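FAQ: What does the model actually see?

It sees only this:
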Amino acid sequence: MGNALRYVGPVQRWSPLARRHGFDALIVLGAVAAALDVALRDDALRAPRTTPWFAVPAIVVLVAVLLGRRSLPFAAPVSVWLLAAALSFVDGRLVTFTFSAMAAGLVATFLLGNQRDALQGRAGLAIGLGAAAIVVFNDPNRTASSFVFILALISIAWLAGFALRERVVQAEAAEARALAAERERESAARVAVAEERARIARELHDVVAHAVSVMVLQVGAVRHRLPGTLADDREALQGAERAGRSALAEMRRLLGALHSGGEVAERTPQPGLDGLEALTEEVRRAGLPVRLHVEGEAIPLPRGIDLSAYRIVQEGLTNALRHARASHADVTVRYGADALRLEVRDDGVGASTSDGRGHGLVGVRERVKIYGGEMTAGAAPNGGFLLTALLPLERYRS
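And it is asked to produce this:
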């Protein structure tokens, strides 16, 4: 095991280096091979006529120019062909004699086809075809088919580079669209959360305002019944009464700020679990059969939890009715000693959402989070969609 780890470590370190400089190493090897071919001149009939002192450095430079492809993505491959055409005027056999020089030309053409700038890519193709024609024309050993063969190779290499560039561009465009869609979803989700929190605040305003109003009235009643000898107590209660009334005024002002676009506040009483029968009947009339199951002994709930529980069930049934293509649904309310458990199950297909983006469940999640509860939503084990929510009640026990 230790030997294996000692082996894997260096391999992992060398892998990025090999990916980055592996092709550079091939270029260097090609330059060395070209130099040896020109220096040894095994084929005397096709061998260059210039002195090795010129031919060897020239052919090495021709191949090694490709090492500058990163810093000069257009100029480096174009220089290969321009240099090849220039060398063919000095010695027509020099460029065509070695395979490495021809391979360098094909690689340069591939890189020109892979240019980001389409104009540069087309210009590179024209330069490559023109330079290749000059090289073949200046070769004394050329044949009639040489022009067709080399020009076909150049075109194929350029098309391969162009096809790879198009594929990369499409992949980058798809990635950019995916990132934009993700940012849009995140932005829409943040807006949905803000809107849902504002809606919850508006709904809970009546609950809190009612409780504060009761406290203010009770404090005022006690203050009026105190005898005159308890002036200090009367003054303290009067201060508490003023603070309560001020809090009510601030809450009404805040509620007004939460309404946007001239939205009018609801005047009807906020619903609770005692309104589930009416809710399920309304859903039945809309076309979705619903069965309501109540387990455990119904107990008085804090007004905020009662309202949130109703909204959670309402959201689950709305999703099942509008988006899940369900044929029936079941609502289960379980009263426990420490928590209220809600379950909305339907036999529809796929995940239920309220607007195609899942924002209907955002409201459920926010309501559950307020009271430190838990929520799940997803495919049910036996098919359909299942929404569950648990709202703790321990902190509200006296």
